[in-house]
Amino acid sequence: MLQLILGLVLFFGMHSISIVALPLRDQLAAKSEVGWKLVYGVVSLIGLVLMARGYADLRLTPTIVYAAPAWLYHVAAVLLLPTFVLFVAPYFPGRIRSATKHPQLIAVKLWAVSHLLVNGTLADILLFGSFLLWAVADRISLKRRPARGVPSAPESKANDVIAVVIGLIAYAGIVFWFHEMLFGVRPLV
Q1: Is the Cβ–Cβ distance between 14 and 43 less than 8 Å?
Q2: Which parts of the chain register pLDDT below 70?
Q3: In whole angstroms, how far apart are CA 124 and each of 1, 58, 121, 150?
Q4: Which end of the chain is more exposed for a tag (fewer CB within 10 A), N or C?
Q5: What distances in angstroms separate CA 5 from CA 15, 34, 138, 153, one per listed residue?
Q6: Is 0.70 topped by the overall pTM?
Q7: How far is residue 186's CA from residue 181's CA, in Å, rounded to a whole number?
Q8: Quick one: pLDDT at residue 52?
């Protein structure tokens, strides 16, 4: 449990600096943009590894909080469909990105909610609940802070098609192959 919590603190601590201490983030980045990105990336990666290891350890002896009815697995699968499209949309600016404003945060929320619907162990609630809370907090904070640009393709109407195709291919790859290979769970049974 400690490993998971430490991973969550490191990962979301770094990802929340812009939410709670934007002047500090800007000051550190102004001193050295490369240095800031290096520290940000390394600490986030360490947090991610600890999170994954802690989550995997807790899955060995799960504390079940609730059990989802079978039909919720289908709801979760449908909720996850737009997740991958929304996740890549900022890199392919078009109508999807302009209509949703912050498509990656919507993707994180959908991903977290869909996993919380069907996974009721303490480890799941800690992991996916943390992502959901962070995404909500980040979205609220974006209303009062300036947006930073994301490296992306030039804006085009074709970008929506590209985002949908890439998103659906990623969805199929995860659902039918990689999810079971990486996490030992087949999402569509």
Answers
A1: yes
A2: 189
A3: 12, 9, 5, 30
A4: C
A5: 15, 28, 20, 37
A6: yes
A7: 9
A8: 95
Cβ(17)–Cβ(25) below 8 Å:
yes
User: In sequence order, what DSSP letters do the residues of 7-65 get, joined into one string?
Assistant: HHHHHHHHHTHHHH-HHHHHHHHHH-HHHHHHHHHHHHHHHHHHHHHHHHHHHHS--B-
Cα atoms in the Cβ-side hemisphere of radius 13 Å centred on 153: 15
Q: Which amino acid is at 35?
A: G
- Rounded to a whole number of angstroms, the distance between the first and last alpha carbons of the chain is 29
Under 8 Å between Cβ of 22 and 148: no
Q: What is the pLDDT of residue 183?
A: 86
Amino acid residing at 106: I
pLDDT score for 189: 66
**pLDDT recorded at residue 60:** 92
Rg, C-alpha atoms of the chain: 18
Q: State residue 14's pLDDT score.
A: 96
Q: At residue 103, what is the residue type?
A: P
CA dist 155 and 98 (Å) reads: 10
For 112-140, the pLDDT digits (tens) are: 999 999 999 999 999 999 999 999 999 99
In the Cβ-directed half-sphere of 70, how many Cα atoms lie within 13 Å?
1
Q: What angle do CA 68, 120, 140 make, to 5 degrees?
A: 105
